Amino acid sequence: MASSSSKALIALGTILLAHACYSAYEHSALHLAAGLPLDISIETVLSVVFICVGLVLGAEELKPISWRVWAGRAERESGGGGPFQGLEDRLGFVDIRVKRKDFADWVRDQGSDNKG
Amino acid sequence: MPTERELAISPLVQESVQHNTQVISNIRSLTASLFGVASGILGLESYSGFLFYLLGTFFVSILIWSILAKGKQRDYFQGVWSELWAGDVLNGGMSFVLTWTLFYGLVRA
Lengths: 116, 109
Hints:
The complex is a heterodimer of chains A (about 120) and B (about 110).
Chain A: H1 2-30, H2 38-58, H3 67-77, H4 85-88, H5 96-115
Chain B: H1 4-9, H2 14-42, H3 47-68, H4 80-85, H5 89-107
Main location (chain B): endoplasmic reticulum
Family (chain B): Belongs to the EMC6 family.
Protein name (chain B): ER membrane protein complex subunit 6
C-alpha cells in the first residue's frame, strides 16, 4: 500500500518537475527581463513536496536500535524464535547413569545375538 | 552519547544503527539533488538558494520524524540531533550545489 502510493507520488512529482523545468526554460527563452511566473514556482515547489513525501513513504522501515526492543520484536515475529532461540532449545540434564545402563544392556544384547 | 554504563544496561543493535543511518543518508542524498534541481528552476541566487536548501532539509527531517520514526526518534537514533535533524546536511550540500548550478545554467542559457 505504502509502496504503491509512494511510487505514484514520485511519478507525479517527476512529471510536474519536468514540466516546470521545461516551462521555465521556454519562459526564459521568450522574455528575458520578466521574472519566473508564479504558477511555475508553485508547480516546482509542489512537485518537490510530492517527491519528498514519496521518497520518505517508499523508504525502508527503520529498525529499533535498542537490543530489548529489537529482540522482543524478532521473537514475536518468528513465533518464539529470536536471538535467544539457542538457549531456549537446549536439552535439560541427562541422567547419565540410566543412559550408561541402557548402553550396557544394548551391548549385552548384541553380544548374545551374535553368539546365538 | 550514552555512557558505557548505560550501554551495558541497555545494549544497542549495531546492525540496526547502520541500517537506519543508511536509510537516512539515502533519503538525504536523493532529496538534496532534488532541491538543487528545484532551486535551479526557481532561479534562486546566493543566500536564498542555501536558505531554500535548509528549509527543504528541515521539511524532509519532519517527514522522516513523523512517517519513518513515528514520533519516537529515540527508539531509532543514537544521537537524535546529529543523525536525524542535521545528519548528512553538509554532504547533501555538495550535491545540492552541483544540481543547483547545473539546472540554473540549463534553464537560463
